[in-house]
Amino acid sequence: MKATPKPQVARSVRPPTDASGPFVCSWSAVGDCAVVRVAGAIDIGTLTSLADELKHVITTKLPRLVVDLRRVTRMEAAALDVLADAHDLAVENGGWLRTSGAGQWLPELMRHTRPVAHYPNLADALPAYRRR
Q1: How many helices (H) and strands (E) does the chain have?
Q2: Whole-structure pTM value
Q3: Which of 1, 18, 53, 128 lies 20 to 30 A from 24 at CA?
Q4: DSSP letters of 20-69?
């Protein structure tokens, strides 16, 4: 039986993005993937911060990422475009983008736009933790 290596974790050197109140967006590396953790409301005041952070991670850190949405309190429809655009950028850079933790409402909404793979929890979305 082949041993699965333990994921290595690296933290973002930049401070978390904080915009228009209780919105926080930060990233860390788990194995060869980045995890972007988002908390608070994703609205017109925070969309640019989210898009910028996703672009930064994809183009300068790791193009394979999971966006952890379990602490998102509200998400405007325009955020779906941000996630889909980030997915396209990740694919262009040889990677992928997955979402996790948003519940069933996100895949249902994404079905009507450009779909992004969604997993119920972070462990299922990260290849290092998934069973083969």
Answers
A1: 4, 7
A2: 0.79
A3: 128
A4: TTTEEEEEEEETTEEEEEEEEEESTTTHHHHHHHHHHHHHHT-SEEEEEE
